[in-house]
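Reopening this one. Same input as before:
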Amino acid sequence: MRLLLTLAFVLVAAALPQPSNAAAPDRSPIVLAQNGGKTLSQAIEQVRRETGGRILSAETKVQGGREVHHIKVLIKDSQVKTYKIQGRKLSG
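Same output, byte for byte:
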């Protein structure tokens, strides 16, 4: 069920109009951390807002006891960048 909701959100986010005047950052994949971490939805919105690009895919993986959201985005000049956003710390 969670996978279906995530997939539905990604499809809706990809269909939204993208700002054409936003400058995409010229940097390697990034890792951002925040207290408590971000949800996948928050991470997708952050990347879309910061890059102005089109979200191609988004998934959550577990690394070192923490969620890491991998978000692929199509930015200017037809470049695809992967952003890694730290999610919640998992108790175990």
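So the earlier flakiness isn't reproducible anymore. For the record, The chain has two helices and four strands.
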